Amino acid sequence: MNSDISDRILSVNQQIDSACAQAGRPRDSVQLLAVSKTRSADEVRSAVNQGLTHFGENYLQEALDKIEALSDLALEWHFIGPIQSNKTRPIAEHFDWVHSVDRLKIGQRLSDQRPDGKPPLNICLQVNISREESKSGCSPDEAPALARALGELPGIRLRGLMAIPAATDDPDTQHRAFADLRRLLDAIRVDLPELDTLSMGMSADLVPAIEEGATIVRVGTALFGPRAAKTEPKPE
Ligand SMILES: *Cc1c(COP(=O)(O)O)cnc(C)c1O
After folding, report:
1. 203 lines ligand 1 (CB under 6 A)
2. Is any ligand 1 atom within 6 A of the Cβ of residue 218?
3. Beta bridge partners of 125
4. CA of 58 to the centre of ligand 1 (A)
5. Which residue lies with its CA nearest to atom 10 of ligand 1?
6. Are 13 and 223 in contact (CB under 8 A)?
7. Block means of pLDDT (10 residues each) for the chain, length 236 residues?
8. Residue among 72, 115, 69 nearest 96 (CA)
9. Measured in whole angstroms, how far is the alpha carbon of residue 174 from the centre of its chain?
C-alpha cells in the first residue's frame, strides 16, 4: 500500500516535471496540492512520509479531525470546498489557505475571524470560468471588482484565482478554460500586481493546466487512488 502511493506520487511528479519542461517553466513554479478529502489521517501520514507537505480538504469537520490528528507534523492545509458563512470561523483559525472564496461576505468573515498573531490567511477567488449553471464561483465579469474589495481586507491576503472548469476530455476545451482564467488574472494584475497564484488543474487535466500557467495543481485520485463515492460526506 505504501508502494502504491509512492508509485502514484512518482508518476504525478513526472507529469508535473514534463509539463513544466514542455512549457519552459521552472519546476518550482508549480506546487502540488494533495487533495486528501475522504482519506484517513493514516493515509495522509503515509503521503507525508513519501514527501508530500501541502494538503487540500473539502469537508470541514473531517478536515478539522485530520488537522488535529496530524498536528505533530509541519503541514500546510488548504480549504478547497464550498463554504457556508456560519462555518467560516474554524476555517479562519485552522487553515493556511482557502481556494473557494466566491463572495465578499465570506472574505470579510474570514478576515475578521483570522486570529491575531497568525499571518493573513491566503485566499483565492473562485471563478466559474466555464459559466456553468449552478456551479460555485463568481462570474468572470464580477471577478475584478470582487478582487479589489477582497484585496483591502487586513486578515486575508488575496493571492489569485481558482477554477474548476466544466469536465471534458477534449484537450482544446481544457486549454481554453485554463487560458481564460490566466487572462482574467493578467487583467486583474494591472491593478493588483502582487497576485501570483492560479489554482487550476486536477488529476485528469493537470498537464494542460500547467501549460497554461497553473501555479497550484489540486490532485486527489491520481495520488491516492479512486474515492469511494458512497462514503463521501455532504459538503459543509
Ligand atoms: C476533489 C477535488 C479535487 C481533486 O480531484 P481529483 O480528480 O481527485 O484529482 C480538486 N479540486 C477540488 C476543488 C476538489 O473538490
Report:
1. yes
2. yes
3. 101, 161
4. 9
5. 218
6. no
7. 85 98 98 98 97 98 98 98 97 98 98 97 98 93 98 98 96 98 98 98 98 98 88 54
8. 115
9. 18
Our answer on whether the CB atom of 164 is closer than 6 Å to any ligand 1 atom is yes
Cell of 141: 465579469
**CA 141 to centroid of ligand 1, rounded, Å:** 25
> pTM to 2 decimals?
0.95
What's the gap in Å between 3 CA and the centre of ligand 1?
Answer: 22
**Alpha-carbon radius of gyration of the chain:** 17
Residue 11 CB–ligand 1 contact under 6 Å: no
Q: Kindly give the distance from the C-alpha atom of residue 116 to the centroid of ligand 1, in angstroms, as a whole number.
A: 31
pLDDT of residue 165: 97
Atom of ligand 1 nearest to the CA of 202: 9
As a whole number of angstroms, the distance between CA 76 and CA 96 comes to 6
Cα atoms in the Cβ-side hemisphere of radius 13 Å centred on 48: 19
pLDDT number for residue 228: 84
> Cα 31 to the chain's mean position, in Å?
10
Cell of 230: 458512497
Rounded Cα–Cα distance for residues 167 and 202 (Å): 10
DSSP H or E run through 188: helix 171-188
Closest residue by Cα to atom 7, ligand 1, is: 203
pLDDT at residue 134, as a whole number: 80
